[in-house]
Design brief:
61% of the residues lie in helices and 11% in strands. It is of the alpha+beta class.
């Protein structure tokens, strides 16, 4: 059977899930937004999740159980990843999640209520700390993938594609720290990242190709090795005096 157009699929997912959320939370739902690849046009069918942020007030645990029960089939069918926050949690956590809130604010499609993200204050020091932690976390994740899965090439390729899916948000977070214009496409972002941190573009572009299911033209071990070294170089520069 022919796969549905991604835009149609995403629209169906939003309509199905938002109907449930609005039924469960009613007037307590203060904001709902689509963000991530489904909002930026980089969604890959059967690989990407559809990310939805819902801000509620009050945040009732009973309603959360109700939402989980009512939306179970929809979240599985459409690969929806919902993030439910109380209004107070949103207002007090910008120091912990500056990368996520900047990403959501710049890419989101408001589905319901008022834009509560634009009024958040983001401290650059907190942004640097989180960006460095994320880069180092991805270094460790890549190392673990190599150790546990590389001997099984098909499994490794599948897990690497999933790992690759969250790198664009990280790249944009790194570029926000530098103050550089990010560009529109993933290739623009990669070009700016490589130029700013003096790392090779090729393995980053090949990672994007893998995410989209394109077969690599060279040895996978070589690509992953260069990726690992590039990430280490970025982490070392972020930790240097220029960004402190």
């Amino acid at each position: 059977m022919k796969s549905k157009d991604p835009e149609v699929f995403i629209t169906e997912a939003i309509e199905a899930y938002m109907g449930i959320v609005q039924t469960v939370y009613a007037d307590s739902l203060k904001m709902a937004a689509l963000y991530g690849s489904a909002a930026t046009g980089t969604y890959v069918p059967s690989v990407s999740d559809i990310n939805l942020l819902c801000v509620v007030d009050p945040a009732s645990p009973r309603r959360l159980f109700d939402l989980g029960e009512r939306s179970r089939k929809v979240t599985r069918k459409y690969r929806i990843t919902p993030h439910i926050l109380s209004l107070k949690e949103l207002e007090t956590s910008s120091d912990v999640f500056p990368v996520e809130y900047l990403e959501i604010g710049e890419t989101m499609e408001l589905l319901h209520g008022t834009d509560l993200i634009s009024s958040l204050e983001i401290d650059r020091k907190n942004l640097r700390h989180q960006v460095e932690a994320m880069v180092r976390g991805e270094i460790n994740s890549l190392r673990q993938l190599i150790i546990t899965s590389f001997s099984r090439q098909k499994l490794f390729a599948l897990e690497l594609r999933e790992w690759a899916g969250r790198q664009s948000a990280l790249f944009r977070g790194v570029l926000r720290l530098t103050g550089r214009e990010q560009g529109i496409s993933r290739h623009d972002i990669i070009e700016h990242l490589a130029e700013t941190f003096e790392i090779p573009q090729r393995p980053l572009l090949e990672l994007e190709d893998m995410r989209e299911g394109v077969k690599l033209s060279r040895d996978l071990q070589e690509v992953v090795s260069e990726l690992l070294l590039a990430y280490i170089a970025v982490a070392e520069k972020i930790d240097g005096p220029e960004y402190r």
